[in-house]
Each structure stands twice: as C-alpha cells, then as structure tokens.
Design brief:
alpha/beta; 3 helices; signal; Lipopolysaccharide-assembly; Double Stranded RNA Binding Domain; about 170 residues; LPS_assembly_LptE; five-stranded mixed beta sheet
C-alpha cells in the first residue's frame, strides 16, 4: 500500500515538474533539414585528412545533437566553408631540461593553429545567418611525431571549433 502511494506521488511530481520546466536551449524552432557541405582545405600547409575529418565531425555533431535531418536539396539550414589555415609553429623553450648523453636539452613547445571560415545560412530566418571565422589552437611538446599531432592535437582543436560553431548556430543563450 505504501509502495503504491509513493509511486503515485512520484508520477504526479514528475508530471508537475515536467510541465513547469523545459530546457531546449535551441534557437532552432521550425527548421527541419540541414545541408553541411564538405569543408575544403585551402590552407597553405595541407593536412591530407583534415578536410574529410572536419566535415564528417561537424555533420555528425548536428545530426546527432539536433532533430535536424540531413538533405542534399533545398535545406532549411546550409552550413559550408573552408579551412583557411593549418600551421604548426614553435612557441617557447621551457625551463624544463633533460639530461642526455649529448648534454643538456631544453624542452620546447609547438603550437597547432587551425582556422576555419564558415558560411551559415538559415533560409527560414535569414536575419540569423552569418559568415564568421573560427580559430583555435593547442600547445604541445615538440617531441610529438607528426602522426601523434594529427591524431590527438588536430582532434582537440577541431572539436573546440565545432563546439563554437554549433553553439553559435544552435544555442539560445
């Protein structure tokens, strides 16, 4: 008897809370379809996998975290752009030292920078459409190999950029 009463109170409470509070946080209201074109890599230094990786990751973000359906014709939302910069530059020599047979070596860091130009077009609400450039970077130990950089650092930087793009388009803060 106590169990049924508690269960009834739980359902009533859940119903009341559900009707009082709803967090959508989305500025997308009546948009149903999205087309995300491939982002070509037009950077002076070309990472051969970056274009496909970034394009796939941004498509997955929108298709998995929104109710938008992908389309190739007449979309409500169009997202396209290009990768305009991919660079690895030395940043500093740290005070950390490493003793080797050849002598003392100071550790240094490099910085990966990726810049992406985005064109966002909302056909149902043209006033929210924009053209913006997104940039992010990550510092890493210069001893990382090129393949380590492409696996870990590129993923880190592109995820941050995708988060910024996604939030600018979807979040209603």
């Amino acid at each position: 008897m106590n169990f049924l009463r508690n269960l009834f109170i739980l359902f009533i409470s859940a119903g009341i809370l559900n009707s009082c509070y709803s967090f959508t946080g989305s500025s997308l209201t009546d948009e149903k379809t999205v087309q995300i074109n491939e982002f070509p890599n037009n950077a002076p230094l070309v990472n051969p996998t970056l274009s496909q990786q970034f394009s796939t990751d941004i498509q997955n973000r929108f298709l998995q975290r929104t109710t938008l359906k992908g389309t190739k014709s007449n979309p409500d939302i169009l997202i396209e752009g290009e990768i305009t910069d991919y660079s690895i530059t030395p940043t500093n020599i740290s005070s950390n030292t490493q003793e080797t047979a050849a002598g003392t070596i100071q550790e240094s860091q490099n910085k990966l920078t990726i810049t992406i130009k985005v064109h966002y077009e909302n056909k149902l609400h043209p006033d929210v459409s924009f053209d913006r450039t997104y940039m992010d970077e990550a510092a890493f130990n210069s001893s990382l190999s090129q393949s380590d950089i492409e696996v870990s650092q590129v993923k880190l930087v592109t995820d941050r950029i995708i988060n910024k793009i996604f939030n600018d388009i979807v979040a209603n803060w």
